[in-house]
Amino acid sequence: MTDSLTQSTAGPRASGSLIPDLSVVIPALNEAANLKLLLPLIQQVVTELSISAEIVVVDGGSVDETSSIVAQLNARLIQQTERGYGGALLAGLAAARASYVATMDADLSHPPIFLKDFWRERVNSDVLIASRYIAGGRADMSLSRRILSTILNRTYAILLGLKLRDLSSGFRMYQRKQIEKLELRGRDFDVLEEILVKIHVNGGRIREVPFHYQVRQSGESHARLLKFGWAYTKTLWRMCRLRYSK
Question: Please, what is the Cα angle at 182 between 134 and 109, to 5 degrees?
Fold first, then answer.
């Protein structure tokens, strides 16, 4: 990705030289109310899995109680320095220290209990995607958003020759060795497709696991449709060039 991904920073449950089994990266902007519920749920799952973990919350400039909630609940807060969802994701991936890195939203649309599915399947793939659109998966969302999401995912999959159904899902688990060498340009939600294309081109194994996507619990979505669509269009062009240049 970038040199920053190799930096080492201490995690809340893995201080000193002790490396955690799992890093959970959560981009957040004014999500204090949701984080107050989410972080204990993640910690409970980690305890049930009998593994060590660090939770990295990437703050995009929150003006609510995000920082105090994160401190109270034994997670680590880092500040986002580059714009957009992509900037937040890259900051979190750079700070993560474990061999396995899960990424998820702060709004409770990604139930932490699903981390158990990821952990169980972790050795079978370099990237695991919590997929809304394969058999057994489903999504609670408005009709307009469902249509947009379906068109986007099918267009990307067909044009890029990827046998995947949910390329835009941000709920994933990565083997860190696969992502630390990537150079990523996307700074909006389009970074999600860019990661998959580049890992695929590098010969990585990508697998989807059925998942039930749920609506956010509180606050408002930070996605803006026009900006969202334009970013995806530009990235699709770049990814097509990358995908078929070899």
Answer: 40
| Residue partners of 168: CB distance under 8 A and separation at least 6 | 149, 152, 153, 156, 189, 192, 193
Beta pairing partners, 208: 129
CATH number at 3-243:
3.90.550.10
φ/ψ (deg, to 5) at 173: -130, 130
pTM exceeds 0.90: no
Let me know: does 188 contact 84? Beta carbons within 8 Å.
yes
**What pLDDT does residue 158 have?**
86
Name the residue with higher pLDDT: 227 or 27.
Answer: 27
Q: Cα angle vertex 179, ends 192, 154, to 5°?
A: 30
pLDDT at 226: 61
Shortest CA distance to 174 belongs to which of 7, 9, 45, 22?
22
pLDDT in tens, 177-212: 999 989 998 888 889 989 999 999 899 999 999 999
CB of 245 closer than 8 Å to CB of 165: no
